[in-house]
Write a structure and sequence with these properties.
Number of strands: 0
Number of helices: 10
Largest sheet: none
Order of helices and strands: HHHHHHHHHH
Length: 300
């Protein structure tokens, strides 16, 4: 049995990788054009709230679910009311954090929600990875590696999607509707993750849902960028596109010139080689020239 300290380090490292990938995938694209200090502040609160949320979910939902899956009818079934209350409490906590003056002043609900969701999802993934490896009978297997990687990568990003969408709805004035909808999404996410731990085919469903929602994330993040920053960002993108096109056109012209010059050099080399070959052949074939025979006879 692996020690608890090693399991904690593996779970923490895996969760941090997932949080980093979630941040680099979206937040770095718009870096410098949104309220970055507020987003970092939301990560701090997300770690605290996510730790409480993940601990309660572990003791009230995941451990009873594992016992029920392994032992069958003799185990305690996780109560659906517990799942509903935990998801609702988390949605209300997110709502209270995203309605602070610091967030409302800059209109950074989606970006702050994305950072907050990454931290909450990272803590959830860390506790799930720790508990899964601890309860698994096998020390190392392909299924374990696949499950740990899926928990580390997908859980923070899915929670970030839910929280960013909740912030986007709050930005558009639908506050309590955002709480209800995000609660439903969190119940579905948590239930699907628990199922996927025992049946890896469940991750395919989660990935497919992520791919459907992924096209809308940029619209949510774009809504939190101020209008002057949007215009400046469009100018930067247009300038980069023009530079890219000019570089491509110059490289194509250079390739054409290089190909032409190489063709000319090849022709010159070929002609020079023919001239040298003919000169050498002429020097060697003395008997083939009758004038030279006459000169030799006169000299004699």
């Amino acid at each position: 049995m692996v020690s608890a300290s090693v399991l904690f380090q593996v779970a923490t490292f895996s969760a941090l990788i997932g949080m980093t990938l979630g941040w680099r995938g979206m937040m770095t694209k718009y870096a410098g054009f949104y309220d970055l200090p507020t987003a970092w502040n939301q990560i701090f609160w997300g770690i605290i709230i996510g730790m409480f949320y993940a601990t309660f979910c572990d003791s009230s939902l995941f451990i009873p679910y594992v016992e029920y899956a392994n032992n069958g009818d003799g185990a305690k079934i996780p109560h659906p009311i517990s799942l509903l209350l935990l998801a609702l409490m988390l949605s209300i906590a997110v709502h209270l954090l995203l309605r602070r003056e610091r967030v409302r002043k800059g209109g950074s609900h989606p970006t702050s929600g994305w950072a907050l969701g990454l931290a909450i999802g990272g803590m959830t993934a860390m506790v799930l990875i720790f508990r899964y490896i601890q309860l698994d009978d096998e020390i190392f297997s392909f299924k374990m590696v696949l499950t740990v990687a899926a928990l580390a990568i997908l859980t923070p990003r899915c929670e970030a999607m839910i929280t960013a969408h909740q912030g986007f709805m709050m930005l558009n004035g639908r506050k309590w509707g955002a709480v209800i909808r995000s609660t439903a999404w969190r119940i579905a996410l948590l239930t699907t993750i628990y199922y996927s731990i025992f049946d890896p085919f469940g991750w395919i469903f989660i990935v497919s849902m992520m791919m459907i929602v992924d096209s809308k994330i940029e619209d949510w993040i774009w809504a939190s960028i101020p209008k002057p920053a949007r215009r400046r960002l469009r100018r930067i993108w247009a300038s980069n596109e023009r530079e890219k096109r000019s570089i491509d056109s110059i490289s194509k012209e250079d390739e054409k010139e290089i190909s032409k010059s190489s063709t000319v050099i090849q022709n010159i080399t070929y002609n020079t080689t023919n001239i040298q070959d003919s000169a050498i052949v002429g020097d060697l074939n003395i008997n083939a020239n009758p004038n030279m025979d006459e000169k030799f006879s006169e000299d004699e």
